[in-house]
Every structure is written in C-alpha cells, then in structure tokens.
Amino acid sequence: MFTGIVEELGEVVAVEELGDSSRFRLRGPLVTEGAKHGDSIAVNGVCLTVVDTEDGEFTADVMAETLKRSSLGALSAGSRVNLERPMALGGRLGGHLVQGHVDGTGTIVERVPGEHWEIVRIALPAPLARYVVDKGSITVDGVSLTVVEAGDDWFTISLIPTTLALTTLGVKRAGDPVNLEVDVLAKYVERLLGKPAAGANATEEVVA
Q1: CA-CA distance, 155 to 128, in Å (whole number)?
Q2: What is the pTM of this model?
Q3: How much helix, strand and coil, in percent to the nearest 5, is found in the chain?
Q4: Segments of the chain scoring below 50 in pLDDT
Q5: Which of 20, 50, 108, 129 is the least buried, fewest Cβ under 10 Å from its Cβ?
Q6: Residue 127 CB partners (closer than 8 Å, separation 6+)
Q7: Are the CB atoms for 168 and 155 separated by under 8 Å?
Q8: Ramachandran angles phi, psi of 153, nearest 5°
C-alpha cells in the first residue's frame, strides 16, 4: 500500500525486452536503501517487485498485463520516473490510500500556467470517469492529487511548485500518457451497492 507522496525522482537505466514482458533497471538511491528481493516499489504509480538491488539501483520484471494497462512500455533508458516505497504501518498517511494497481492510462490535454501553480487537464477512459469527482482523490503517475473539476471524460488537477519540481509531472507535456489509479474505496462502494450482501434474500432490496 502506498500514499501517492513521491519520495524520489528516479531514472530508467536500462530496459531489456523479454518477449511479451520486460526487465527494467532503475536508479533510486533513496528507495533502494534497505530494499531487498521481494520488496515493492511504485514506479510512476505501478507497484513493482524488486528482483535485486546494487549501488542505488534495482531491477524489476514488468509482465505483459502491466505493460498493457500502464504507460511503462513507453519508457526507455534515461526516462525520469516517480518512485515511492510502501507506507510503513503506523506511519502518517500523507496522500490517500494507493494500491499501485493502475486502472488505465490518460492523456494530458493542456497545461495552463498560473502565478505559482499550473492547472492540468487530463483526458481519461470513459469507464473510469464515474470514479472521479470534484475535490476527490486520484493518482496520476503515482502522485496523489486532488481533483479540481471532473467532466464526462476529463478532469483537472492543480500542481503546486513542489510537485512541479520533484515529480515527472513538471516536465510532462500535452499528448503525453499518464498512469491513472482511481480511489479504490469508490470501487468497493460501487460493488457493494450493486450486489446483494452475502446471505441476503435475492428478492429483497439491500439498503445501504
């Protein structure tokens, strides 16, 4: 489980194509400190399992399903990435509950600079739009953000100077893809409201 508070701006060192999967080597001295085989690290919001670590770098295998559902397949050596270690049990929840399970990809439509921030409009797949609401939470490339405005197939976010400086969102441009993870609590609520509770009579209406 993650919080969407990026700890480090890392870099892709190498990408090895392995048929329908890939092996990534990434540089991140902070997130690899104390990391070992089997640990999890979020890369642009995608939870990956550490294969090995050495000298501030780690290796992770990316399966076909992950490449299909996320924008990781577009990365190459030299690409910058947002990195975050899992939250520590009992620690502060700085963002919101993030699983690192990408729901789909969106596309940056436009960026409107302000005096001290930028408003970014992002197009998203229609099936995900139902989970995005004004002032709700969403994860964009692993960054926990508050939705400013939500439309039928788009939403906007406001990026403060810290986010612009310390994450890849500061250099993304119109047309670039981004990984999206909607609030998992909204998906659970939808599931519970749309399906009778266990043991309930099939002819009875389940009231929340």
Answers
A1: 11
A2: 0.83
A3: 15, 40, 45
A4: 199-208
A5: 20
A6: 104
A7: no
A8: -145, 30
Residue 85 DSSP label: P
Instruction: Report the C-alpha gap between 117 and 106 in whole angstroms.
Output: 21
Identity (one letter) of the amino acid at 10? G
Tokens 């953000």 belong to which residue? 145
What is the spatial distance between Cα 191 and Cα 208, in angstroms, rounded to a whole number? Answer: 12
The letter for the amino acid at 56 is G
- Decide if 92 contacts 22 (C-beta within 8 A): no
SS3 187: helix
Q: Give, in degrees to the nearest 5, the angle at Cα 103 between 131 and 86.
A: 105
Residue 21 structure tokens? 């999967």
Q: Which residue has the tokens 């940056």?
A: 108
The 10 Å CB-count burial string (b at 16+, else e) for 42-61 is bbbbbbbebeebeeebbbbe
d(CA 120, CA 126): 18
Q: How is residue 169 written in tokens?
A: 């969102």
- pLDDT tens per residue, range 74-121: 999 999 999 999 987 777 666 777 888 999 999 999 999 888 889 999
Report the DSSP beta bridge partners of residue 24.
15, 60
Range list of H helices, 75-179? 126-129, 161-166
Angle CA 26–107–44, to nearest 5? 20
- Unique residue bearing structure tokens 């197009």: 123
